[in-house]
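Supplementary Note 2. Why include the ligand at all?

Several targets in our set were suspected to adopt different conformations when bound, so apo predictions alone were not considered sufficient. For every target with a known small-molecule partner we therefore ran a joint prediction. The input for benzoyl coenzyme A is given below.
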Amino acid sequence: MYAQMVDTGVKAVRAVAEMSPEEQAFQARIDADIKIEPKEWMPDAYRRTLVRQISQHAHSEIVGMLPEGNWITRAPTLKRKAILMAKVQDEGGHGLYLYSAAETLGVSRDQMVADLHAGRAKYSSIFNYPTLTWADIGAIGWLVDGAAIMNQIPLCRCSFGPYARAMVRICKEESFHQRQGYDIMLSLARGTGEQKAMAQDALNRWWWPSLMMFGPSDAESVHSAQSAAWKIKILSNDELRQRFVDQTVPQADYLGITMPDPDLKWNAERNHFDFGAIDWAEFQNVIKGNGPCNRDRLRTRVKAWEDGGWVRDAAMAHAEKQAARAAAKAAA
Ligand code: BYC
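The joint prediction is reproduced in token form.
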């Protein structure tokens, strides 16, 4: 992934007095928690911000199928294989709902996919890490889906109707994904010494990248202020990250495995866990396209698209034949 920052044209959040009458009316609807629907007037920058975020989100779901898909043939039991197949398929479905939500804003799916394949579009940093053992499938469900739910529950209340509605179903499915991941971790943690060590190793490798999923710190987040004003973001990157840490630490304790963070400790004054510094240089490196798997992920997606060309051609030919038959019947 070689994406650059997407310029949505927003330099600073403007005061109401600086807005045009149309923008003021729009902001008043947002402030009154009225959902914005695709055919209604909206500022161009609002549209661009949503296309940016929703398409990145869709790409994340689609690219996110790859690390787990890698283990479908090697799942340890038939039951685990069936569950994993269902989960990976769900992620594909999430991508499709999200592409549809973005299409309501006037961008075509072909364009979004072309941007991904050309390295112009971002997707979540987390999917550029490799899945080395079966325990990684547990860690992804537990941590990656856990972080995703934390971020996505507030999105069910975001201001753009199609995105908010897509998130309702996605969150329900993510919650099953999170539980299946935790169940894998529980089995390993209660298994042999070697299995427990696998679970610990997976936690060690996935913990910090999971914290990076929430994006840069609030101080560094370029889009947060405007997205908050438009109620695309209900909670900030740092607030969500803190909630995730607070929720996940007791779950690791229950598994009997240790968070790979010597600075992690309960802060009774703040009523939250304090945690160590995130390696933001690593994060920036991954989102610039230099993570462990970026090139491989894109290559795999491009190949899948090219290999699927004949299916798209056949579907188009079938649709054209159906339409021609219907037209002939109507004319007869
Ligand atoms: N990775 O100003 P900021 C899943 C970018 S999939 C890569 O804070 P924003 C699953 C950001 O895009 C779940 N890039 O931005 C699937 C921006 O760059 P651009 C995926 C990141 O948008 C399969 C720049 O950094 N979830 O659950 O206000 C299997 C500055 O950031 C990341 C979503 O997509 C990152 N981690 O906030 C299993 C949720 N973080 O666009 C599970 C929807 C930041 O200027 N998205 N960047 O080039 C969001 O909630 C927000 O877009 C973010 C970032 C919180 C991610």
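The chain is about 65% helix and 0% strand. Residues 3, 5-6, 52-53, 56-57, 60-61, 64, 91, 122, 124-125, 144-145, 148, 151, 212-216, 221-224, 227, 233, 237, 287 surround benzoyl coenzyme A (CB under 6 Å). Comparable summaries for the other entries are listed in the accompanying table.
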